[in-house]
């Protein structure tokens, strides 16, 4: 499973189990974001600290929502500590590694937060896919979508941090107000990104990284398959980097731009069809980012 080295231990057979896992995950997020907000405050990074405090408030709302969910189902509030062992170990390990660093930039802090939200998304997606109980499946899918929304928010904040560190201009959000506008936008963005990933795959193959080339070829094919039927674009291509790690970094950057664009559209959508489709496209791209993160980890 992308970003998780091991499948979650045991299946989730009841809403009581899912409630306990969800509460444990939300409380752990509150604790970790509190640590990161304090670290950013200590380093004078007030914008990033504010981002984490906003996430703390939202996660605390989720803690209350899980308690309310249990009450509405006529169940007692879950004992969250009893479910900590069910959480992916990659989450705790990566948080510990990050907070122990003597030097930590806002970009690094937000990057790890993005990855861990993607891990939570993958975790809930696995629970939903393997659930035999319909209420467990539907509620796990809802929780997965919420983690995906958090990842999109953090990804935008990370790009702001990237620009601040390099003095770049503020990002202008991508917008599509109607399904037709989104179709045209998606066709252009997906075609351009598929072409970029295809060129990077060819470069990786020439550099002797067959596994990386195969992954990027697969991602490019997936992106072309997502292009609306009958749509097309003539994308421009730039020179590929000279090393395999640089190629992988460029591939990640291309997918991040694509995910950010669809996230922008979803955040501003007033049309339900635009919202649903932009989230579907963003979810597919986040899946590609998870695969690329896994490949980057393996290559390093």
UniProtKB/TrEMBL annotation:
Keywords: Plasmid
Domain (Rubrerythrin diiron-binding) ranges: 110-197
Ribonucleoprotein among keywords: no
Ribosomal protein in keyword set: no
InterPro entries assigned: Ferritin-like (IPR012347), Ferritin-like_SF (IPR009078), Ferritin_DPS_dom (IPR008331), Rr_diiron-bd_dom (IPR003251)
Single GO molecular function: ferric iron binding
SUPFAM superfamilies: Ferritin-like (SSF47240)
Pfam families from the UniProt entry: Ferritin (PF00210), Rubrerythrin (PF02915)
Domain Ferritin/DPS: start-end pairs: 8-67
Identification of the protein by name: Rubrerythrin family protein
